[in-house]
Amino acid sequence: MAQIDVRQKLEILADAAKYDASCASSGTAKRDSAGQSKGIGSTEGMGICHAYAPDGRCISLLKILLTNACVFDCHYCINRKSSNVRRARFTAREVVDLTLAFYRRNYIEGLFLSSGIIRSSDYTMEQIVEVARSLREDHQFRGYIHLKTIPDADPALIEAAGRHADRVSINIELPTVAGLKRLAPEKSTARIEDAMAGMKASIEDGGDAMRRYRSAPRFAPAGQSTQMIVGADAASDRDIVGTASRLYDRFGLRRVYYSAFSPIPDASSVLPLRRPPLMREHRLYQADWMTRFYGFRAAEVAQATDEQGMLPLDIDPKLAWALQRREAFPVDVNRAPRELLLRVPGLGVKAVDGIIASRRWRRLSLADVGRLSRSIAKLRPFIVTSDWRPTALVDRIDLRTKLTEQLELFG
Questions:
Q1: pLDDT of 312-354, one tens digit each?
Q2: Which of 63, 242, 259, 333 has CB atoms 3.0–4.6 Å from 21's, for a disulfide?
Q3: Contact at 8 Å (CB) between 407 and 375?
């Protein structure tokens, strides 16, 4: 590998990191070095890569790879061994120095670090952990750190990553075992899930220690996440939602990220020639939201898919589900429990909480609900209020067409 300076490395390795979607800072612990004799950085405040905390704060992260060289030859990866791309590699010290320099210039508030596999999984994981260790222990860095871990690495190294990072990621890569075996034969779904299970156990042990002992160190306070590629294999949306739901249940993940496959230079012949519609990725995130915050089971979300197991692109999956389950509607907003209100198309969590709070004092009209929701056109066929009943509207054969026209008109 030809000698190149740090700026050229940054250009190459920041660009190579753009394919990783799982870059977020939500859920981390609050830390601040202000007023302390030691330490630099904070996980608070307003700011490269932008992620958002639960309260809406924008967090700027230095998002880079340690190296884009890799001993693996995964068909879908632009950094695979056989790919004809320009290679670069940071040392652990260079990543530490870059992170501190960017922070002192107020460009970033944290680091997102991933890597290709160099030499071996253990060697690469050692370098990643060393970056986080040096930032935390040598420089007292209190900003946000997200590390992408390598499932084939020694479990002790993955556990060490959790001691220094706010969040760790272990990518599942593809939604199905068959897809991973075909496109990344050097990787194993079983090994990936074993690493997730080990991280879950360590996070739970860390949380238990924190409850018992005030002085116990934090362990990956923002939890673990994963990412799967959409559209590189034959997996349907039904398959993807089912896999994501299983991962949430088994491993207590904070997030599953979806990344639409993007054709790469010198692509393998086994890959599709075109990327999937970006709207497909968006619909999967909406379906993910349904299972995480709206009380839907994966099997219920699957009812919104077509015969091929694909979610519709022209309407959101919650509306698609409601159109398939018309016997569940209309819902009386003045009487229905929270779990039923959350299933009404057009009502989000905040709107439902607003309805429940408001109806303690008065019976709500259609106009009242409209002030709490963004889309009264979507709501009308599915709710009953003090002055509105949809009568036969919810049973119309052409309801989907009418709603689509109205949503396009008011969109």
A1: 999 999 999 999 998 889 999 999 999 999 999 999 999 999 9
A2: 259
A3: yes
Q: b/e map of 183-193 (b: 16 or more CB within 10 Å)?
A: bbeebebeebb
Check if the beta carbon of residue 191 is closer than 8 Å to that of residue 198.
Answer: no
Q: Distance between CA atoms of 190 and 181, rounded to whole angstroms? A: 11
CA distance 157 to 199: 11
Q: Which domain holds residue 173?
A: 6-266
- Assigned domain for 110 exists: yes
Task: For residue 67, give the DSSP letter.
Answer: B
Q: pLDDT-based confidence at 75, cuts 50/70/90?
A: confident
Whether residues 247 and 351 share a domain: the answer is no
Residue 304 lies in a domain: no
Contact 375, 365 (CB under 8 A): no
pLDDT tier at 400 (50, 70, 90 boundaries)? confident
- Angle made by CA atoms 277, 279, 283, in degrees to the nearest 5: 130
- What is the distance between the alpha carbons of residues 228 and 236, in angstroms, rounded to a whole number? 13
Residue 253 and residue 348 share a domain: no
Prior bond of 185 cis (ω within 30°): no
Q: Which residue has the tokens 């349904």?
A: 290
| Helical pair 237-251 and 189-212, crossing angle rounded to 10 deg | 40
What is the amino acid identity at position 136?
R
Alpha carbon distance 371, 213 (integer Å): 47
| CA 195-199-200 angle, 5° bins | 115
